[in-house]
Design goal:
alpha+beta; globular
Amino acid sequence: MLMEIYLNENKAKSNHIDIEACYQKIDYYFLSRGVEIISKGIYRGTKKDFNTFALAQGSLPRSSWFLKIVDQWYISYFGDTPDSPEYRSDALASYYRINKQTNEYFKNQKSH
């Protein structure tokens, strides 16, 4: 299990956000749950960490800063290295796709 989060320094500066503080928040979340940090923004877990990764995937976009400064974001629930592309999913694209589908669903519900 692997999550890769690459924050953008220029986006952080233009939004007056401390990028290091953001990485520290993410690091704390994973470390406090026993997940290994293998390098800046890259977190490796095992099957027992599934809920930790799923909660991060659901909650990071709801923070006030994440979507403003994230550049790339990947999740792999099966591979555990960045070299496992067959399992790697673009979490940012998934978020926007699901968000769009949800918004369209509710828009259609209102029109009925």
